[in-house]
Amino acid sequence: MEYMILIYGDEGAWARMDESQLNAAYGEYMAYTQELVSAGVLRGGSELKPVSTATTVTARGGKMRATDGPYAETKEQLGGYYLIDVANLDEAVKWAGKCPAAKEGYCEVRPLSPSPPPA
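Above: the chain sequence. Below: its structure as tokens.
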């Protein structure tokens, strides 16, 4: 079954890191990513650009509106994700617990709904 590991944290903390701290943090993520690859469970993933680059879209009363920025102000921002394919939620939670983000921010684990096969 496929699960998303959604990575949340204070993106301002990244901006305050010096180069050696950034290199160390990215090294942790690269090691974690390689562990997922080696286990054969990684299906995709990416770091997201800063929340300041977001565009929020709403459609109300037949009118679409796009606004700059996130929908809501929060202390933590969605910073990236991993898409994994594992046997069950317990296994997905174990992988999320190994994610570097779990040490400072948090990881949300969500199952994906099965997609219908392409026509």
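The chain has a mean pLDDT of 90.
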